[in-house]
């Protein structure tokens, strides 16, 4: 047999009916994740056709996008942003109950952002296919799972048949060798990668991240990298599973136990690219070239190293982005005043991210100009952080410690950045209006974001780290 | 609103004359097509009034003169020509729902994002990818009557120049014959059941709960 890539193996293992010129492949879906925003119309389609959910136990639902991040009031009611938002949550409750789908609801202690919950519970397994009506499903690829976002029509397909019609995408290898410098992490790497290949550099492809710098990343950091594959236009991101993956899974509540775990690991090990397997394209990145990186524009490919200047506007689109963001030509990125700092989202709201933020905030104060929100990715992350006292550090610094959810990443639950304000955010999209109409977003790592919160301006975290060491 | 280019009824379902409306920006993401604050709906209809909500008005609330939809000369336009990498970002199917609700039947760009393209096809919105040079020409000349032939996968300009665009054979069949893709998948039940008998045991135990 020809040597196969990790992606080839994942694809082959899930083909129910092979693809032909006339028809796409029928691909089996091992795990279907559902949230309240992209599912109601799919359940309605099932109802209209009198269909049931084929594999309810392989469908897991959570509430994250429309949910408030402030706790219930004295009357026990959650402060929903609108009646529609509440209706959407109630619709998912009804649909989950009707079809016997497990829902991570407010009272269960396991609710959170869909791409945080799947991995931490051990539902996300190597060698599987995972889909969700959400483009950041790519996150789960960090475990060596083929995971990608789908539309609501396809959500109905998967609910009813556990399958999808798919043409096989191409494969792009991104090889990162070497060691990162101080103050540089997974978020800086993926922003740098998108800057190199562009926001459409991955279109039509699945990306496999590999090389010594990727192998050295923790599972959480690999998730941060895979999460933003979609920001380069890719369907999915992948990292081959290894000991770091298996150790992580062994500590999750739902992964197999005992002998079953050992057998599962043997199966998972087979999901690695064969020597000599061919990718359709390859990009090589030297980890030493990656500096702390932020976005300056209105898409995630408009990035700059934090010690750089705003590039000259080459065309009308870049000039428009620069004007929207309120930069003057040639301005230094560092030093710009910051109004809001948001730590959260499926990119960077896991416990490791919050620890990094707490390390900066400990015994310091958020700058008086800045409103800082820290939103844990899930109930489990929140509890773990509170056990370590991270909530107290955050509050003592003058930042807000919130309930889990997508929050200001998508700004549909009432957590908004005001028009014209500049937000430094650990989320994944800096599109116009993403964090509120007229809001200006600078994407950054949790470390950079926390440092900016303290100084009140965009700040190179390396300068901060060096004063800390002194 | 769409006028058949040919009087032959048999051709009506495959050949359309559509007037173009133009948005020259590159990387128009689905947050621009329909901002997240309109996603709290549980319906798929009536989203056209929120399409490009933040581009319709200027900061002071007055109508944005550069925004083409809603202008009288664009009433009935059914083909949107846009800059490269249209539909990037969020997978929300609300984006093609909103565009179709505006009366659009096709999107022309030199690149269309993967998930958007897939979602568009499921809603009768035809994604047409053409070379930069021709897209640039179309961007510079709004209001053209363009003839799209779905069977031949071609787009013709009023001067007769005709350009082929790629269209997956299955998607083409679905558009021409109105194939119900969910019905098509449901008919594969036997193959799906056979596949399921081979699922790894450790996955069954993880998900059984
Ligand atoms: S945190 Fe943001 S990107 Fe992630 S699932 Fe929620 S809205 Fe989407």
UniProtKB/TrEMBL annotation, chain A:
Principal EC category: lyase
Protein name (record): 3-isopropylmalate dehydratase large subunit
UniProt cofactor(s): [4Fe-4S] cluster
Gene Ontology biological process terms in this record: L-leucine biosynthetic process
Residue sites binding [4Fe-4S] cluster per the record: 346, 406, 409
Gene from which the chain derives: leuC
Cofactor-binding details, from the entry: Binds 1 [4Fe-4S] cluster per subunit.
Family: Belongs to the aconitase/IPM isomerase family. LeuC type 1 subfamily.
Matching SUPFAM superfamilies: Aconitase iron-sulfur domain (SSF53732)
Function as written in the Swiss-Prot or TrEMBL entry: Catalyzes the isomerization between 2-isopropylmalate and 3-isopropylmalate, via the formation of 2-isopropylmaleate.
EC number, as in UniProt: 4.2.1.33
Short name of one Pfam family: Aconitase
Protein's pathway: Amino-acid biosynthesis; L-leucine biosynthesis; L-leucine from 3-methyl-2-oxobutanoate: step 2/4
GO MF term list: 3-isopropylmalate dehydratase activity; 4 iron, 4 sulfur cluster binding; metal ion binding
Quaternary structure annotation from Swiss-Prot or TrEMBL: Heterodimer of LeuC and LeuD.
From TrEMBL, chain B:
GO terms for biological process, alphabetical: L-leucine biosynthetic process
Pathway: Amino-acid biosynthesis; L-leucine biosynthesis; L-leucine from 3-methyl-2-oxobutanoate: step 2/4
Occurrences of domain Aconitase A/isopropylmalate dehydratase small subunit swivel (ranges): 24-131
The entry's keywords: Amino-acid biosynthesis, Branched-chain amino acid biosynthesis, Leucine biosynthesis, Lyase
Gene3D superfamilies reported in the protein's UniProt record: Aconitase, domain 4 (3.20.19.10)
Short name of any one Pfam family annotated for the protein: Aconitase_C
Entry EC no(s): 4.2.1.33
InterPro entries associated with the record: 3-IsopropMal_deHydase_ssu, Aconitase/3IPM_dehydase_swvl, AconitaseA/IPMdHydase_ssu_swvl, IPMI_Swivel, LeuD
Functional note: Catalyzes the isomerization between 2-isopropylmalate and 3-isopropylmalate, via the formation of 2-isopropylmaleate.
Protein name as it appears in the record: 3-isopropylmalate dehydratase
Source organism per UniProt: Dokdonella fugitiva
């Amino acid at each position: 047999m020809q040597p196969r890539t990790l992606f080839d193996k994942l694809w082959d293992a899930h083909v129910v009916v092979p693809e032909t010129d006339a028809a796409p492949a029928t691909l089996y879906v091992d795990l279907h994740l559902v949230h309240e925003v992209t599912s109601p119309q799919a359940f309605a389609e099932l109802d209209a056709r009198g269909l049931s959910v084929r594999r309810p136990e392989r469908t897991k639902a959570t509430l994250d996008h429309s949910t408030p991040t402030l706790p219930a009031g004295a009357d026990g009611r959650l402060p929903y942003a609108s009646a529609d938002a509440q209706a959407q949550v109630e619709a998912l409750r009804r649909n989950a109950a009707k079809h016997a789908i497990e829902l991570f609801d407010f009272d269960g202690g396991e609710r959170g952002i869909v791409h945080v919950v799947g991995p931490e519970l051990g539902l996300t397994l190597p060698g599987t296919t995972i889909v969700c009506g959400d483009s950041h499903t790519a996150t789960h690829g960090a475990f060596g799972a083929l995971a990608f976002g789908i539309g609501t029509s396809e959500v109905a397909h998967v609910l009813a048949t556990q399958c999808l019609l798919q043409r096989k995408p191409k494969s792009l290898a991104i090889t990162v060798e070497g060691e990162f410098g101080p103050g540089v992490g997974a978020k800086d790497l993926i922003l740098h990668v998108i800057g190199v290949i562009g926001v459409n550099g991955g279109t039509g492809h699945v990306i496999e991240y590999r090389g010594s710098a990727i192998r050295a990343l923790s599972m959480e950091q690999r998730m941060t990298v895979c999460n933003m594959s979609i920001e380069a236009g890719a369907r999915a991101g992948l990292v081959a599973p290894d000991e770091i993956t298996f150790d992580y899974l062994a500590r999750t509540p739902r992964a197999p136990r005992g002998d079953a775990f050992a057998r599962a690991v043997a199966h998972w090990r087979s999901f690695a690219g064969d020597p000599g397997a061919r990718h359709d394209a390859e990009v090589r990145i030297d980890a030493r070239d990656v500096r702390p990186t932020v976005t300056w524009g209105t898409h995630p490919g408009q990035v700059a190293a934090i010690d750089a200047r705003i590039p000259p506007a080459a065309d009308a689109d870049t000039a428009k982005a620069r004007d929207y963001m309120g930069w003057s030509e040639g301005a230094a990125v560092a030093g710009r005043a910051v109004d809001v700092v948001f730590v959260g989202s499926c990119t960077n709201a896991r416990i490791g991210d919050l620890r990094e933020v707490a390390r900066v905030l400990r015994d310091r104060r958020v700058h008086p100009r800045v409103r800082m929100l820290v939103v844990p990715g899930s109930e489990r992350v929140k509890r773990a952080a509170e056990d370590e006292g991270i909530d107290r550090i955050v509050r003592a610094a003058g930042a807000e410690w919130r309930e889990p959810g997508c929050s200001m990443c998508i700004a549909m639950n009432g957590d908004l950045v005001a028009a014209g304000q500049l937000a430094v955010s650990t989320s994944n999209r800096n599109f116009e209006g993403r964090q509120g109409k007229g809001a200006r977003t600078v994407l950054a790592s949790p470390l950079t974001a926390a440092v900016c919160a303290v100084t009140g301006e965009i700040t190179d975290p390396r300068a901060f780290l060096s004063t800390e060491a002194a | 609103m769409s006028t058949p280019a040919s009087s032959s009824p048999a051709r009506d379902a495959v050949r359309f004359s559509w007037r173009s409306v133009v948005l020259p920006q590159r990387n128009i993401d689905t947050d621009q097509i329909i901002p997240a604050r309109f996603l709290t709906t549980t319906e798929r209809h009536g989203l056209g009034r929120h399409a490009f909500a933040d581009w319709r008005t200027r900061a002071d609330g007055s109508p944005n003169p550069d925004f083409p939809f809603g202008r009288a000369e664009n009433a009935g336009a059914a083909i949107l020509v846009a800059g490269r990498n249209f539909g990037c970002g969020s997978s929300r199917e609300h984006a093609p729902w909103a565009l179709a609700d505006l009366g659009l039947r096709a999107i022309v760009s030199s690149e269309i994002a993967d998930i958007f393209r897939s979602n568009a096809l499921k809603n009768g919105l035809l994604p047409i990818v053409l070379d930069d040079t021709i897209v640039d020409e179309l961007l510079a000349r709004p209001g053209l009557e363009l003839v799209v032939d779905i069977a031949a996968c071609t787009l013709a300009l009023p001067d007769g120049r005709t350009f082929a665009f790629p269209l997956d054979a299955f998607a083409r069949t679905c558009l021409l014959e109105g194939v119900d893709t969910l019905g098509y998948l449901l008919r594969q039940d036997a193959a799906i059941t056979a596949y399921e008998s081979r699922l790894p045991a450790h996955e069954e135990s993880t998900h059984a709960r």
